[in-house]
Amino acid sequence: MSTTTTSSNYQIYSRYRNFRTLTCPTPVQFSSVCCDASGDIVAAGTTDTFQICTWNLQTGKLLEFLSGHEGPVTNVRFSQGVLVSSSWDKTVRFWDTFESKGTTDSLQLSSDCTTVAVRPDGNQVAVATLNSDITFYDMKAGVTVGSIEGRKDLWPGRSSQDLISAKSQERNRCFTTLCYSADGSVILAGGHSKFICIYNVAQTVLLKRFEVSRNLSYDAMLQFLRSDNMTDQGALDLMDTDESHGQEIALPGVAKGDFSKRRTKPVIKVHSVEFCPTGQSWCSATTEGLLIYSLDDTISFSPVDLDIDVTPGALRIALKKGENTKALVIALRLNTSEYLIEAVECVPIDTISLIVTSLPLDYVIKLLDFLARQLSETQHLHFYVSWVTVILTVHGQGLKKRSPELTTVMNTLISNLLGETKSLAKLCDSNSYSLDLIIAANMRNCSGVTTM
Description:
Blueprint: E1 2-4, E2 9-14, E3 17-23, E4 30-35, E5 41-46, E6 52-56, E7 62-66, E8 73-79, E9 82-87, E10 91-96, E11 102-108, E12 113-118, E13 124-129, E14 133-138, E15 144-149, H1 151-154, E16 175-180, E17 186-191, E18 195-200, E19 205-211, E20 230-231, E21 234-235, E22 270-275, E23 281-286, E24 289-294, H2 312-320, H3 324-334, H4 337-345, H5 352-358, H6 361-374, H7 381-394, H8 396-401, H9 407-430, H10 432-446
Antiparallel strand pairs: 1-2, 2-3, 4-5, 5-6, 6-7, 8-9, 9-10, 10-11, 12-13, 13-14, 14-15, 16-17, 17-18, 18-19, 20-21, 22-23, 23-24
Helix pairs in contact: 2-3, 3-4, 5-7, 6-7, 6-9
């Protein structure tokens, strides 16, 4: 975990303990930070000197200042050894930090850059600008591959001081944070608005818009103008009204008035958005707090190839008759976790290979997705791992050909397997002596030796 401060310090935290503080020789104000994939290099952009500072995380030594931007640096991101930075000078620059060659290339935009994001494969970069546009560039060719006009999607609310409606006012309409999904197919965008937008990258269309808050105690929440809230003295929301008839109640030790009053309301904003590596959920840091959204559809009814014969009753009849393959296909077509668990756990372990071989590849992918998610919840770990092993062995070639659409499934599978491995390893290590005692006692009993 890392944090930035308004001074020339950059602090690194490990499990809530500061183990490294990175500093600059001169006071600067940092605006964004990032770390490369290897965890060796840390980069931070500045707003006052227009430079980018890089450190060696192992030694804490300042490596160099990267100069070239002519405005405040708004964001920095590492991608496959290349540092990407955006700035208010309407440029996005690419830096080779490992060979110290400085800037290698740059992109010129028509408006100030507010943030930048790099696709996980490193082949595409998305840039948000002050005019509410998101532009996608091919990093290798340096050409535009698409753009999104997000002005109508943001819909910023009307501030208490605005004399016009939210639809008419143009200020502060921009995205300030972007994040690609693991497969790069969609992108999250948030900024000076109470909405978070999800766009399809290939088709550059809005998929869905999420409202982060409806709390009217925040500013910029209203969408329409209310003339009755405006007076000759200004907006009613900005006036302090109490029952003291103009007399200010002083706090102890305060000479003039009550300084504890909140005279301005916080403005609703989205400060940052991030996708989970598995793609099943994402989170956002907003004025309302940290919000976590789940894209998991396990609790929703989403049937596949549903017809009149695909029912829970038909599933249970097939299980009673021992027709496990038919029951599993019905459960996959119903696409409900409850029925999938019932169908999978009724299959004898020695017949798993036969059933998996007879399933079409489309059903195998759905089954693998279910098994990957269930690994973190089930108590029958060996049974479910046996299913996964057979599927990858029998259908490995077919799954490899469709690997682009399996990125999320494989990430979930690997993540849950690693988590269960760590839990079992810790459990076994803490009980190693007890296991040795049980094994030794069992061997004594088998050999007919009486334990004293």
